[in-house]
Amino acid sequence: MKTRYKIAVWALVAVAGSALLGGSFWWWLAGIAAGKFIIRLLFTIALAIVIYCLVYACIIGGILWILIG
Fold first, then answer.
1. Whole-angstrom distance, CA of residue 67 vs CA of residue 11
2. Rounded distance, CA 41 to CA 44, Å?
3. Are 66 and 55 in contact (CB under 8 A)?
4. pTM of the predicted model, to two decimals?
């Protein structure tokens, strides 16, 4: 999706949210931008935790494999 279309969609969402619930267009736009940042941050942290656990599972599994074998 082209950048100008993304900006238009986010602006439309901000205007719709502002019209439905009241408030300033700029607050809605800032909320959308902050929400996108927070969601990306949470997904990044979740991925890091999963990879961390998988690495330790492989290490422990390797040690057990050597001990059992």
1. 60
2. 5
3. no
4. 0.55
